[in-house]
Amino acid sequence: MPDLTIIFRTQSDVEASIVRGLLESHSIPTVVTSVLTHALFPMAIDGLGEVRISVHPDDADEALRIIESHRTELPNGRVVRLRDEFEELQQATAYRFRDRGLLEHAMTHTSRANEDMSGGVFDNESLEFLGDAVLGFVIADVLFREFPEYDEGAKSKTKAALVSTATLARQAERLSLGDHLLLGRGEEKTGGRRKQALLADGYEALIAAIYLDGGIEQAYAFIAREFGPLLSEARMSGVVAQDHKSALQEYLQSHDEPLPEYRLAGAIGPDHNKQFQVEVIVRGEAVASASGPSKKDAEQEAARLALERLTGGSTG
């Protein structure tokens, strides 16, 4: 058997998997080898680690042609990587990764890793664990420094609200993080990009990726930017405003129920003092309704009432 020809090198497990799938979809068998040291977090150091894709010498020219046909050449002549969909996410985070593979790793859900037969794709669970710790440390540090008037109980309550699943999912939605998650086919079909738990986990993994790529200073700066408005809100009112819509969505998903829908039932009053009436619908049934000076306010109140009805208690 002739020696195989290496036709693609990358420092990203995810990109290697994509290229391999591309070639095999064109009936070109591939062999993937890795010289990465996969410890807790797979990442390349000083460009020494890489994943290599090899093919039979007779297939080499065709494989290279296929790969090149799927690249994008920019007006300045620079050829970008096959998979560059994370550019928008980097812009949203105001942080540019030196090792893009870390960002891919952070966005890779376990359902995607489980579907990869090469064993070269790693899920984001370990990054989620680390990100949770980094986030908790930074929020605690900010509260200690900037809220000296808060006693331990108030600090703990505020921290819990800031790092809750509902809050993290809302922060992830602001970045459109769900659009960038790498999901398995099953998770994709069941609406994984909108699931509160997946969004919150991905957000924590993103924090860990920034920490590993840029150090604690960059992670601290990112968290301070992201949570600044919520911290200001806490400073002014003493509490972090509850997102009843996110809480309702999280509750329904945890009980295998479909996502709620909000229907505008009507609006009364003059334009300068209009009141909007909104109903929240679950499984085709109007669970609760509320009014407010804006549709957003009415939806939040309707969600609060729906939660109260569904849980049989007060939502606060």
Quick take:
The chain contains 13 helices and eight strands. With 316 residues, the protein is an alpha+beta fold.
Strand-helix topology:
Elements: E1 5-10, H1 13-25, E2 31-34, E3 51-55, H2 60-69, E4 72-73, E5 79-80, H3 87-93, H4 100-107, H5 110-115, H6 125-146, H7 152-162, H8 165-174, H9 185-189, H10 196-214, H11 216-237, H12 244-254, E6 261-268, E7 275-282, E8 285-292, H13 295-311
Antiparallel strand pairs: 1-3, 2-3, 4-5, 6-7, 7-8
Q: Average pLDDT, to the nearest integer?
A: 83
> Radius of gyration, rounded?
24 Å
The percentage helix is: 40-55%
What about the largest sheet? Answer: 3 strands, antiparallel
Helix tally equals: 13
Unreliable stretches covering 5 or more consecutive residues:
36-48
Distance between the termini: 71 Å
Shape: globular
Strand order across the largest sheet: 1-3-2
Roughly what fraction of the amino acids lie in strands?
5-15%
- Written as H for each helix and E for each strand, in order along the chain, the element string is EHEEHEEHHHHHHHHHHEEEH
Structural class: alpha+beta
In total, the number of strands is 8
